[in-house]
Amino acid sequence: MPSKKKRKRVERPSIHPRNKYSDNPPDFAQLASQYPSFEPFVFYSRDGRPRIDWTDYNATRELTRVLLLHDHALNWWIPDGQLCPTVPNRSNYIHWIEDLLMSDIIPSTRTNGDIIKGFDIGTGANCIYPLLGASLLGWSFVGSDVADVALEWAEKNVVNNPHISGLIEIRKVDGGETTVYQEESQTDQSVSKHCINLSEVGVVDREAAASALFESYPGANKSYHGPSILLGAVKDGEKFDFCMCNPPFFETIEEAGLNPKTSCGGTPAEMVCPGGEQAFISRIIEDSVQLKQSFRWYTSMVGRKSNLKTLISHLRSVGVSVVKTTEFVQGQTCRWGLAWSFVPPARKIISSHVAEKRVLSFTLEGLQRQYSAVNVLQAVESFFCTSGASCKLNLDSFYVDV
């Protein structure tokens, strides 16, 4: 009887290695002993471990406050009901953007001494990304929002930290005229013309990216009703290294309250958008088409892995040069990061002195029947050309010479 092949165990992504909490998770007992205001929220389980009730908003808010004070020297507070961020998870996002900026995926136009400048879409009352980015890495930020309460408390959180306040601008975005963005099917797009750079897609979701390479844009009926997100918020002539966003993940406020295991608060403006995160991020993509290289990197957090496939297809349809994805892990919570750029990727120089030629073969699974072997070869040729390689397609012999 043939032995069954053991499935390879997929290693779960871990917290970012540069994250302050990678090797030293928060010690609730120590924090309770140092900060009396946190002590009432800490209890001990049967195994003697200190814990907090994650469904208690006051407990999670106080934990965020003491972590920002203890580990980042930041004074911080938000009023009841505002979205309360988790510090380790938000730090992961900051460090991933740092990875993108340090990489040679796209050429850098910065000179030594230039301060990295970011744009936080919907910074909220918590203003967490500008505070962390400025305190950890010395970045400057524009944090935008439309809600008066969010703007008021974001400004307070900046002013209460004078050592970094000069690096952060809180900007009110005019609600302006409501626009409607409706995703449309792109059935006439050719595979070879709209090819994403698979080498730049994160290891977490290559399957979705590969599928997006050969599938037409699905055109899910998700629509965004609201003002432009970046257009109008970015001033004429402004240049940023990146933008980042913690989008409204849900389509209804009822959906937002379905997780009984956590209580992070959040107003409807922070949590809910018609069409959910897919529609909201799609609007950012449409704005990025207009702004193009005003940002070196456009990024957003994504709450549902299933949305990555559609969003990557959308990016392919508008002709971005590079796409990257990653996974953010904190405890049992998973989020995904999506990044794209219109900056042409750095061309990789391939030596003309090759000792020997190698013939590489591979198998592609999951392709839909309407795509022939020729389509596959054309997509492979487009992929290598986009990556800066010199290649030639030979349909008679059915190979690509790279």
UniProtKB/TrEMBL annotation:
UniProt protein name: U6 small nuclear RNA (adenine-(43)-N(6))-methyltransferase
Family: Belongs to the methyltransferase superfamily. METTL16/RlmF family.
Keyword S-adenosyl-L-methionine attached: yes
Positions of S-adenosyl-L-methionine binding: R90, G122, D145, N246
GO molecular function: methyltransferase activity
Disordered: region residues: 1-26
Source organism per UniProt: Escallonia rubra
Superkingdom assignment: Eukaryota
InterPro entries xrefs: METTL16/PsiM, METTL16/RlmF, SAM-dependent_MTases_sf
Any one Pfam family match given in the protein's UniProt record, by short name: Methyltransf_10
GO biological process: rRNA base methylation
